[in-house]
Amino acid sequence: MSDEFENVARMIESAGSVVALTGAGISVESGIPDFRSPGGLWTRFDPSIYATFESFVNDPSKFWEMAEELNPLLEGAEPNPGHLALVELERLGKCDTVITQNIDNLHQRAGSSDVLELHGTFRCGTCLKCGMKHTYEEIEQAAAGRVVPVCMSCGGSIKPDVVLFGEPLNARVLQRAVELATGCDLMIVVGSGLEVFPAASLPDYARRGNARLVFFNIATTAFDSVADVIIVGKAGETLPRVVEVYRGLSEGCTGTE
Ligand code: NAD
């Protein structure tokens, strides 16, 4: 058994409260590339033009142009073994909440029951003029034959319920995330470059609350020095492996290899 996997499994075993913080990396193996890696969305669509709240209000067609490329990926994606491993941890009583920066709905589809979507979801949208809520299917209908989907009620511009750059996060969601981070014993950070704030400050809240931190990533992050353990590899492989080792420990097996 590799030491670092056993080390993390023992941290899970001794933690009363475990919280996961996930980023784009956990969904890469579901076919949704992260935005920052070479060739990612932001290398082709400058976010200051395509993804700020201000640019959306001034000209939503730019955003929808980018969404035409992204939406089929989001729609076609299925949860992968990384998402499922967090569901299994929850079933074992060892993952209270998944705090995610992702907008792809994959944690919910995998079966995680308490998911905090820091950056919202692509599954619905709101009219900027009258506030009417629209489901994804209604937005698709509203978009038929035009570049920009408009509200079924007033003809205003519909904005997907994703948090754009320059837009505040939902205060209630953020407050709960901070409380969970501050109160947990162990935070598992999966597939996040920790470059987007305030999400990137959550490990710091956990650390200040004396929690242990474990990072799962294929690469280094700017915050690696604060992690107790870093497990390098694809989340769809490393997370199930940790859960398997933890299950072995909790069932009283010594050494699974
Ligand atoms: P990021 O793009 O900044 O970082 C992704 C991280 O995942 C990187 O550190 C990378 O090394 C790592 N990674 C890539 N493949 C991995 C794998 N198979 N296993 C483990 N780690 C892997 O992502 P972020 O920190 O989440 O921030 C980007 C922002 O873009 C977020 O705010 C999010 O809202 C949005 N976003 C969402 C999705 C989605 O919903 N699936 C996809 C892309 C971007």
Shape: elongated
Order of strands in the sheet with the most strands? 3-2-1-7-8-9
The CATH topology of the largest domain: Rossmann fold
Strand content: 15-25%
What is the domain total for the residues? 2
Overall number of strands: 9
Helical segment count: 11
- Note the gap between the termini: 6 Å
Q: For the report, how would you describe the main beta sheet?
A: 6 strands, parallel
Oligomer: single chain
Low-pLDDT residue intervals, each spanning 5 or more residues: none
Calculate Rg over CA atoms. Answer: 19 Å
Tell me the CATH superfamily of the largest domain.
Answer: TPP-binding domain
Characteristics:
about 260 residues, alpha/beta, Rossmann fold, SIR2/SIRT2 'Small Domain', 6-stranded parallel sheet, 3-stranded antiparallel sheet, binds nicotinamide-adenine-dinucleotide
Short recap of the structure:
This protein has helices spanning 3-14, 41-44, 47-50, 53-58, 60-76, 81-91, 106-110, 136-143, 171-183, 202-208, 235-250, and strands spanning 18-22, 97-100, 115-117, 120-127, 133-135, 158-162, 186-190, 212-217, 229-232. It is α/β, with parallel strands linked by helices. The strands form 2 sheets. The chain has a 6-stranded parallel beta sheet, sandwiched between helices.
